[in-house]
């Protein structure tokens, strides 16, 4: 049965731990576990654990990320070829559009080998702009986290920034109209502006949607008797695990919006391909407004980031010296934190309590070190997001848009999430195999490394009629393997970020987790010179080896 809903009320959301605490310090199997309803340590060790019913409000929150991912992948998947693809034309004064096209679409007779394109500015410029987009989307979550923690709370922050994303989509559609494409530089300028606006919006909701969806579950650990007579443990930990599995499934279901984008751009032009995701995203404010009275929301409690900088700044000011050596000695001396301690009439009120909170949070932050390994993981993922699409473009398409193959990743996730949640993970628990978050993430690194192993390679010759004698579906294997790795690593990172974070740090830790994707984009940007088709074999093999090596280092750490 479901835990009582606290719809429409402001509540405190705690954090979950791997092992519940006893209400007594006595090491007894009869001790009642803290935050449970009569569950003892003996019950915990001997009874089967199952998840609770997922609140319906959580599924409506998932709609937000579903629509955002639809619009993100339904647009960015075409930006790569929108910017780079160039099909030869004898009319030098015209924009680099496919023959006879005014919107980037491909004539029906050319669709078997043709690739939709518009600006013809080359692969490197396209790669740079898309990498910047990914970087910026995963840096701005800190903006959303700070605003939610200090001013609006998670729900209102999501609502406001969905409007920002919608405005960005309007600019994007305008950049791809036939009139804009007659002036490629103007079109590119509008495109970059749209990317900036949408990245601010998408990043800012990203730090808040993941915590908000888990906030909707407020149940406690308890025992229940099934109709068969079996006594089970209803586990909040497993419930949150399932919430994030289905949340990620919704994300990837939205990602399949890129399928429609591929065909729409090829057949109807880029402005139509961008208009459809805009209409899809227009449903988000309707859902959020309609369910506003039913959400479990948490109040803003102040930003621990800003408070940390405030404390450190106050203490550094007192220890500052124009002599760098003296400054370093002052920082390392005893009493560094004394200036922040409240003294009547001198120190800001409440800083001591804030310092105590920061000290208590240190142990929690230490757990966040696991996220520092994720840039390597996302580097591997970035290869299926762009370079494998380029490889596919050089193979025989047989009427298949070259970037359509990329959707095997989200499709595989949508299919496999219920299998893992209903069959594989319960089977492992039944066999008493502790597939802990750290083990799952390690497995994700290994599988990602295997998936990045160089696929059959074909040189891409834009505008040339001869394709490599290989079927485009050969590259399906890497996409499916990376999808499995995401179930292990990416989903677990969302769960880990929520369950290990203190109440005041859930949005911040979610932003810190997202930052690792931005760092991966920065590293990828540094590799722009080698992100060229002639070096793909070396690039894929290097990332594969690095991912597997880092899996071992991660688990050992």
Automatic annotation (TrEMBL):
SUPFAM superfamilies: MFS general substrate transporter. Residues 1-35 are annotated as: Disordered. Its main location: membrane. InterPro entries: MFS_trans_sf, POT_fam. GO terms for cellular component: membrane. Keywords: Membrane, Transmembrane, Transmembrane helix. It is found in: Membrane. This is Peptide/h+ symporter protein. It comes from Mycena venus.
């Amino acid at each position: 049965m479901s835990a009582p809903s606290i719809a429409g009320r402001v509540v405190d959301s705690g954090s979950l731990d791997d092992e519940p605490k006893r209400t007594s310090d006595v090491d007894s199997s009869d001790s009642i576990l803290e935050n449970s309803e009569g569950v003892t340590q003996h019950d915990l060790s001997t009874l089967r654990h199952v998840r609770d019913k997922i609140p319906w409000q959580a599924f409506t929150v998932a709609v937000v990320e579903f629509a955002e991912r639809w619009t993100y992948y339904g647009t960015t998947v075409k930006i790569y070829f929108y910017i780079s693809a160039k099909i030869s034309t004898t009319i030098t004064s015209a924009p680099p559009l496919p023959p006879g096209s005014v919107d980037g679409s491909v004539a029906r007779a050319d669709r078997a080998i043709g690739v939709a394109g518009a600006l013809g500015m080359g692969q490197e410029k396209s790669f740079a702009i898309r990498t910047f987009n990914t970087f910026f989307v995963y840096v701005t979550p800190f903006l959303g986290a700070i605003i939610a923690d200090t001013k609006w709370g998670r729900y209102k922050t999501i609502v406001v920034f969905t409007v920002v994303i919608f405005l960005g989509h309007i600019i994007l559609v305008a950049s791809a109209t036939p009139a804009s494409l007659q002036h490629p530089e103007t079109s590119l300028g509008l495109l970059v502006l749209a990317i900036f606006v949408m990245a601010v919006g998408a990043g800012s909701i990203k730090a808040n949607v993941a915590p908000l969806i888990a906030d909707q579950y407020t149940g406690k650990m308890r025992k229940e008797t099934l109709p068969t007579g079996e006594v089970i443990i209803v586990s909040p930990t497993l419930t949150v695990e399932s919430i994030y599995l289905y949340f990620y499934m919704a994300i990837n279901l939205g990602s399949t919006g890129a399928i429609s984008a591929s065909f729409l751009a090829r057949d109807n032009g880029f402005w139509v391909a961008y208009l459809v995701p805009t209409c899809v995203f227009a449903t988000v404010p309707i859902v959020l407004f309609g369910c506003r009275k039913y959400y479990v929301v948490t109040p803003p409690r102040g930003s621990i980031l800003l408070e940390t900088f405030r404390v450190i700044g106050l203490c550094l000011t007192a220890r500052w010296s124009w002599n760098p050596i003296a400054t370093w000695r002052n920082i390392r001396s005893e009493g560094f934190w004394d200036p922040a301690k409240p003294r009547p009439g001198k120190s800001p009120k409440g800083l001591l309590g804030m310092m105590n909170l920061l000290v208590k949070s240190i142990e929690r932050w230490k757990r966040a070190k696991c996220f520092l390994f994720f840039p390597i993981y996302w580097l591997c993922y970035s290869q299926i997001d762009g370079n494998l699409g380029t490889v596919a473009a050089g193979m025989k398409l047989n009427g298949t848009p070259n970037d359509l193959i990329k959707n095997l990743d989200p499709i595989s996730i949508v299919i496999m999430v219920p299998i893992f949640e209903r069959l594989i993970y319960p089977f492992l628990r039944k066999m008493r195999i502790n597939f802990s978050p750290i083990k799952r993430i390690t497995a994700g690194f290994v599988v990602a490394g295997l998936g990045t192993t160089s696929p059959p390679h074909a040189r891409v010759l834009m505008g040339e009629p001869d394709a490599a004698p290989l079927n485009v579906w050969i590259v399906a294997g890497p996409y499916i393997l990376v999808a499995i790795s995401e179930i292990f690593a990416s989903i677990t990172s969302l769960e880990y970020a929520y369950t290990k974070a203190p109440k005041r740090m859930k949005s911040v830790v979610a932003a810190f987790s997202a930052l690792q994707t931005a760092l991966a984009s920065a590293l990828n940007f540094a590799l722009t010179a080698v992100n060229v088709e002639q070096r793909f074999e070396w690039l894929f093999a290097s990332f594969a080896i690095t991912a597997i090596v880092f899996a071992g280092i991660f688990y050992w750490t």
